[in-house]
Amino acid sequence: MRNIITLLFITLLFSCQNSAQSKQQENIKNARATQVPLENGKARAYFASGCFWCVEAIYESVRGVDEVINGYSGGYTKNPTYEASNTGRTGHAEAVEVIYDPKVVNFETLVDVYFASQNPTQINGQGPDHGSQYRSIIFYQNDEQKQIILEKKAALAKQLKAKIAAEVYPFQKFWIAEDYHQNYERLHPNHPYIQRISIPRLNRFKTKFSEELLKKSH
Question: What's the angle, vertex CA 54, arms to CA 52 and CA 56, rounded to 5?
């Protein structure tokens, strides 16, 4: 009888250990699924939040972000140009592709950056820029990302007691903008728009975000 009890105890112990290991493996799998990896171990995320010059500079200030590319997304016109996008008839919004290291910064933090760097209740624009081409969109690439976005959007709406303007779209296509739009704030620091709009917006974001998550200024 004692041997039977001992055997049952050992069987139960191994069953619990296997269950715990399975749960741990499932959690790791879910965490990995949130990121959309590239071949070099980096990942991509896509956001639209007003003028892409501003958004580019904001994400480039975040630790773990390797590169930000300006472009267009969310619409239905192929090969959109800046001029066409500005008419508001392409359906596209000025957007950015964020290439980041998921070992340093995760998707959840990038969504936090998104909401902390804008007026989340402004519809079809940010600051002085108005029109559907400047509307706010967060693009998700899998169900895990969608759930993160919706939860954070709902929490912010509850906190502000207001409707959050950001649209939530499945990612389909990102069209890279013209060369002269890339690294715009860094290359044109004295441009009137950069001085009057982009830099103040970046500085407002930095006051709201943890310094530990920002790159050190040189």
Answer: 65
